[in-house]
Amino acid sequence: MTNASRPCNTHPDIVAFKYPLPHFAEALKTQRKIKIVAIGSSSTAGTDGVLPFPPRLEFALRSEPDFYGRMIDVINRGIGGQEAPEEIARFESDVIAEAPVLVIWQVGTNAVFHDQDHNPKDISAAIEAGLGWLAPLPMDVVLMDLQYTQAMVDKILLAEDIEGRILAAAEAAKVNVFQRWALMRRWCIQDGIALADMDDGGHLHTSDWATRCVSQALFEAIRDAPEPVA
Predict the structure, then answer these.
(1) In angstroms, how far apart are the furthest CA atoms of the chain?
(2) For the sheet containing 140-144, what is the strand order?
């Protein structure tokens, strides 16, 4: 089966959000123009000719019948090679100044891939600080964790350590995690999709098929988020 014809199993049992997205839900009720910011590294910015998740997510949200008539913009603020400490330095200009109702913060990959440049404790501290800065603002936050590709699997112990730090920081802040790592791991371990079919040939970034399916899973998690408490 070619990647072009491979079906996309988004495994809602893995990626479904634990917490509501109250600011996004309210904006759907009261605003026509809705802004989302995606901040992160090359998984967000895009690389190797593969369309990244922000424009794919934007298209899916604009095409959703339940969101008919909304002009939903997903602003791409990804910069390849960056990690949480560099990303939080851009929060004021690239996130807060945009006044989005939803922020998707992709973290962790370069803490593993460029492990010589990063201390895991510093990654934890940066994520915790960033979530703390965003918490009082009128916007929802979703963390996106690691991709399950060859480069990450080659450093599996460190990858799992960083993954645990992301999940712990999110739980402490009561924000959702889009569990890309667990989703792609399910594809590989249980669904039988080879790692070579999930990366882009460079072993770090996701293939076109995997990026498409990750984007679809993220869209479904946002669309189906729990209803806010009245």
Answers:
(1) 48
(2) 71-78, 33-40, 102-106, 140-144, 176-178
**Residues 135-174: tens digit of each pLDDT:** 999 999 999 999 999 999 999 999 999 999 999 999 999 9
Give the span between the Cα atoms of 91 and 87, in whole angstroms: 7
Cα 103 to chain centroid distance, Å, stands at 9
Range 12-222 has CATH code 2.40.10.10: no
What HEC string does the chain produce?
CCCCCCCCCCCHHHHCCCCCCHHHHHHHHHCCEEEEEEEECHHHHCECCECCHHHHHHHHHHHCHHHCCCEEEEEEEECCCCCHHHHHCCHHHHHHHHCCCEEEEECCHHHHHCHHHCCHHHHHHHHHHHHHHHCCCCCEEEEECCCCCHHHHCCHHHHHHHHHHHHHHHHHHCCEEECHHHHHHHHHHCCCCCHHHHECCCCCCECHHHHHHHHHHHHHHHHCCCCCCC
Asked if 190 and 146 touch (Cβ cutoff 8 Å), the reply is no
The model's pTM is: 0.95
Sorted by where each begins, the domain ranges of the chain are 12-222
Q: How far apart (Å, rounded) are the C-alpha atoms in residues 37 and 106?
A: 11
**How many whole angstroms separate alpha carbon 170 and alpha carbon 4?**
34
